[in-house]
Amino acid sequence: MKNIIMFIVIALMAAGIAFYFTHKSFVLGRVGMSFTNKPLAAEKTDSVGNVPKGGKRILVAYFSWGGNTRKLAQDIHKQVGGDIVEIRPVKPYPEGYKETVKVAKEEYAKELLPAIEVAKLDMADYDTIILGYPIWYYREPLVISQFLKQHDLNGKTILPFATSGGSTIEASIPYLEKYAPKAKVGEPLLANDKTLVEPWLKRNKAL
Ligand SMILES: Cc1cc2nc3c(=O)[nH]c(=O)nc-3n(C[C@H](O)[C@H](O)[C@H](O)COP(=O)(O)O)c2cc1C
């Protein structure tokens, strides 16, 4: 009997260790997203190249400092297919909230668009850019403005979504239009309530 119990305990431990190593990024990602508000390691482009369900060629592009918008962007990408890319500042924002607020405030005061790191993209591959960001100072973070400024979005549709501490997304829209004057900015979504996402994707023919 003792031997059987020992065997079961060892088997369970082995299964646990195997799960950790085969799902390491899943396990760590979940822990990071649930319990910290610190910047997570950025991913590179995950170019899955599958055909999106709505027939549009979609790029999900996002910036996230604390992980909320990243989680949502990844969920959206799972639903719509296409590609996903993270937009990161070359000089990362500080880990602390107060420090980040201070740095951001200085950038906004001078409309200083930070240098960004983003995988090389051929915009000819996409019809729709689903653009995700946290609301910072009632608008889009300036890494997003920089991304729009640096890419030729002529004829593309931008579908913006945001997470926030309560502010709406509306005040960011004129800035998106300013930095991507040749793109069409579609229906924006404040996505703090996740149940709004799927109907929004469907309404906008991304799903
Ligand atoms: C620098 C900074 C400025 C922010 N400004 C606002 C704001 O104006 N209105 C608001 O509702 N939330 C604001 N927030 C909160 C974030 O929008 C919110 O926590 C968001 O979900 C964070 O997304 P993330 O985890 O993807 O970074 C701010 C957060 C930071 C770090």
Could you explain the architecture of this structure?
With about 210 residues, this protein is α/β, with parallel strands linked by helices. It is globular. Helix content is about 40%, strand content about 15%. The chain has 2 domains: about 1-35; about 40-205, Flavodoxin domain (Rossmann fold, 3-Layer(aba) Sandwich), CATH 3.40.50.360. The strands form 2 sheets. Strands 1, 2, 3, 6, 7, 8 and 9 form a 7-stranded mixed sheet that branches. β2, α3 (about 70-80) and β3 form a beta-alpha-beta unit. It has helices at about 1-20, 25-35, 70-80, 95-110, 140-150, 175-180, 195-205; strands at about 45, 60, 85, 90, 115, 130-135, 155-165, 185, 190. The structure holds flavin mononucleotide. Flavin mononucleotide binds near residues 64, 68, 137 and 138. Flavin mononucleotide binds near residues 136 and 137.
Examine the coordinates and then state which fold CATH places here, giving the name of the CATH topology of the largest domain. Answer: Rossmann fold
Share in β-strands: 15-25%
Hetero groups: flavin mononucleotide
Number of strands: 9
Helical run tally: 7
Just give the CATH class of the largest domain: Alpha Beta
| Alpha-carbon distance between the two ends | 55 Å
Shape, per Cα inertia axes: globular
Domain tally: 2
Whole-angstrom Rg: 20 Å
Helix content: 40-55%
How does CATH name the architecture of the largest domain?
3-Layer(aba) Sandwich
Low-confidence stretches: 19-50
**The CATH superfamily title of the largest domain:** Flavodoxin domain
Average pLDDT level: 83
